[in-house]
Amino acid sequence: MEFLAKAAEWFIGLFQAGGENFMGLVTGILPTLIVLITFVNSIIKLIGEEKVQKVAQKATKNVFSRYVILPALSVFFLTNPMCYTFGKFVDEKYKPAFYDAAVSFVHPITGLFPHANASELFVYYGIAEGLKQQGLSLGPIAVRYFIVGLIVIFIRGICTEVITSKMMEKRAVFKEGV
């Protein structure tokens, strides 16, 4: 009998822990995201969605701006996870690659701009602590992280674009054959 009681307590405890986590989100990041989404959408409405769309599409015509500038700006200004919403301005065929570039940049930016992804700071601070113990400066590693991050997101964006293109071609051939 005691085993069943402990199993029931564990089972309900699982859902209580989930509820506590959910409440942490409701009182933590969700209000910030809602306000940020409202702000960005307001700016877009004030400027005009067509104008913003045109500027964004012109910016994404160039592979460098599509996979370096746009993801870096979105992570810097909107932070993680809101930065992915910039993808709505990218042509459908480039969206997976834009997402890959943006998601790959949320860690490298934290050394110079911790606001961009505070949840990733533990990784950077872990490395930084080791450098501090060696008596080394943190500035150079933060700059190197940032630069290497820009290079990596550019490469990942291009690779993901190529893979996505090939998968879309195969899908089109498969649909024609069916």
UniProtKB/TrEMBL annotation:
Keywords: Membrane, Transmembrane, Transmembrane helix. GO terms for cellular component: membrane. It comes from the Bacteria. Pfam families: EII-GUT (PF03608). One of its GO terms (biological process) is phosphoenolpyruvate-dependent sugar phosphotransferase system. The chain crosses the membrane at residues 22-47, 67-87, 141-163. NCBIfam families: EII-GUT. This is PTS glucitol/sorbitol transporter subunit IIC.
